[in-house]
Amino acid sequence: MGKPRVAIFDFACCEGCQLQIVNLEEEILDLTGAFDVVEWREAMSEQSDEYDIAIVEGSITRPEDEERVKNIRRRAKILIALGACATIGGINKLKNNFELGEVKEYVYGKDSEKPHLDTAKTKAVGEVVKVDYKVHGCPIDRDEFTYILRCILLGKEPEIPEWPVCVECKAKGNVCVWEYGQVCLGPITRAGCGARCPSSGFRCYGCRGYIDNPNVEAAKEVIEKYNLDIKDLKAKMKLFGSGYEPTKK
Ligand code: SF4
Ligand code: SF4
Ligand code: SF4
Fold this sequence. Notes:
Elements (H helix, E strand, L loop, with lengths): L4 E6 L5 H7 L3 H9 L1 E5 L12 E5 L5 H13 L2 E5 L1 H4 L12 H9 L24 E3 L6 H13 L10 H7 L44 H10 L4 H12 L8
Parallel strand pairs: 1-2, 1-3, 3-4, 4-5
The structure holds iron/sulfur cluster (3 copies).
The site of one iron/sulfur cluster has 13 residues, from helix 1 and helix 4.
């Protein structure tokens, strides 16, 4: 059997997650040894409609995007959502907090009614088609990306943390940034980044999405301890979690 054929596609995004793949440098040679990359607009001019694995970066923000991603899904045996724009809608979902016409006019001014500037509510890839694997983060973590690809090659299920960033942060012995008045989303955000932001003195912005079973009560207790309001937390959650409502616990 030949090497699995991989195609990489982008939708609404900054393409920073693809750049992380480009930045793999010599490790990318290992990957191209294991996979046949048949389409990747950012790095090559060839195109193909025949692939086994589709890697999809970006959010779905227009009706034609939905058709395109459905076509990609039909052709691929495996679909990987790459980065926060694809896995959770990312910062593109900020748009959903406003009336669409208002957003278009703000961005495009007098051109906003031109047909090629059509827009719709932002969706994560998984809200339109089935996603098999998610590479979380804004941008993705390169090591996690190659780990997931290796698991796919070996037929293993990747182990993605289902616990909060606080666990990694505490393990590193960081002083909690709540102590400095920052509203950190670590208690409800999926770990796996090594608590990158709190380890540098910044709050967690929630770029890896929220864990499936966030301990909302504990988060409320932290908020009360620091004399803040749940509205402060919700305001911070808008950047990567617009439209998100915890459904469990
Ligand atoms: S997840 Fe972040 S880095 Fe990746 S494409 Fe979206 S905005 Fe860019
Ligand atoms: S800084 Fe953030 S991630 Fe670290 S322990 Fe405090 S709340 Fe949790
Ligand atoms: S600490 Fe939070 S915002 Fe920073 S990389 Fe990790 S999940 Fe993303």
